[in-house]
Design brief:
It is a single chain. By secondary structure, this protein is mainly beta. The protein has 2 domains: about 10-60, no CATH class; about 60-375, Neuraminidase. It has 7 helices and 27 strands. Strand 11 (about 165-175) and strand 12 (about 180-185) form a beta hairpin.
């Protein structure tokens, strides 16, 4: 009697259902699933799938990139799931060892922007390995035909996505020696610099930006100080225009506050050394001043990194009293100010506690516009 041939999953389920299932699988597993069949490889490799996965996956995967002469990635949600976590060493998007004076100045949709002042940017997706170098030693010529060059230290650095044009933009602004204000955007789609000085708020020279630009809701945001006070400077990538947001009065009175994005919301935090706590202010509704909400986290050195599961704040406590100085400890609290879990990073990361750069980003399979024709080219998935 002839045995019946077992049907494959591709024969049992319609393609539309398989795609819907794959869209809800975390990024780190999709690299292996591409090997299941030619159909799955084709579905996962499609740029439209990468775009949909970023928006439709059940929960974003937050990763923290820590770097010095080497770079490591740790998945923030995983470290609190028992022993089922991984700290992975990754290769920088440089031909040689990282150049001196480089650092991360922005991230967007899974891409990380490195900068080596004053004249080199590298955009990199650590998941796909795709990267692009951007030289800015001489941008363009001004209206009088003179070459416009970057200064050694600019006022503004930012990186974001213009959905209306499906374009990624690197933004740089500065005040030159003659008090002339300059603002330039590099378009990764056209591979060219664009002068948008007309968008500048006057006067840019009175503004001291205290944070790397953070991308949210189609705009890049910077924490700034000026003669008029403190607030958020916002650059809308679609309209190519600036605006400002005021900070809560209680936050303005306190020094050394820092700026983060938590769960798709603007947030600030500061350490209260008298009350032994960290105050986190979250703007629940974008650009709505009355929506600022305060959360108090016990402990002096809790630095929030991301919001997980809608209510759990994952952060770092670099100086916990219970472990040796120089150790690095991740902590998870919920918004009811309750300690849920803590995790001490493995030894290989301990020496990075003070001497590293870091960046928290959402993992994605997206490729840059200039790389879309090479979408099947792949490096290690992390």
């Amino acid at each position: 009697m002839e045995e019946k041939k077992q049907k494959s999953i591709n024969e049992i389920l319609p393609v539309e259902l398989i795609q819907r299932i794959l869209l809800r699988i975390p990024v780190k597993h999709l690299g292996r699933l591409k090997c299941v069949s030619k159909l799955w490889y084709s579905l996962i490799s499609d740029p439209d799938f990468a775009e949909s996965h970023l928006h439709l996956s059940l929960a974003p995967t937050h990763a923290c990139l820590k770097y010095s002469t080497e770079a490591y990635v740790i998945h923030l949600e995983e470290v609190f799931n028992g022993d089922n976590y991984e700290v992975k060493e990754v290769s920088f998007p440089f031909e040689k060892k990282p150049p001196s004076g480089f650092g991360v100045v922005g991230s967007c949709r899974g891409f990380v922007l490195f900068c080596r002042r004053p004249n080199l940017f590298v955009v990199w997706n650590p998941v796909t390995g795709f990267s692009q170098r951007i030289s800015c030693s001489c941008i363009v010529h001004d209206s009088k035909g003179r070459s416009v060059k970057f200064p050694g230290d600019s006022n503004l650095y930012g990186f974001g996505h213009d959905a209306s044009r499906d374009d990624y933009l690197v933004v740089v602004g500065w005040l030159d020696g003659g008090n002339c204000q300059h603002l330039y955007c590099f378009s990764l789609t056209t591979n060219s610099w664009i002068n948008i000085d007309v968008a500048l708020l006057k006067p840019l020279g009175s503004i001291w930006c205290r944070s790397r630009g953070l991308f949210l809701n189609g705009s890049i945001h910077w924490l700034f100080s000026s003669l008029e006070g403190e607030g958020l400077l916002i650059f809308d990538l679609k309209e190519r225009s600036f605006s400002k947001i005021s900070l809560p009065e209680q936050l303005i009175r306190r020094r050394n506050h820092r700026f983060v994005i938590l769960g798709g919301c603007l947030a600030f935090y500061s350490h209260d050394y008298f009350e032994h706590k960290t105050d986190i202010w979250v703007m629940k509704e974008y650009k709505v001043q009355s929506s600022w909400t305060l959360y108090a986290i016990p402990g002096l050195n809790f630095d929030p990194l991301c919001l997980s599961n809608g209510s759990d704040i994952i952060g770092v406590d670099p100086l916990p009293a219970s472990i040796p100085v120089g150790s690095l400890k991740l902590v998870k609290y919920n918004i009811r100010e309750e300690l849920l879990q803590h995790f001490t990073c493995p030894p290989r990361l301990q020496h990075y506690a003070y001497y590293y750069g870091s960046c928290t980003y959402t993992k994605s399979l997206l490729v840059l516009p200039s790389n879309s024709k090479h979408k099947d080219k792949k490096k290690n998935v992390i």
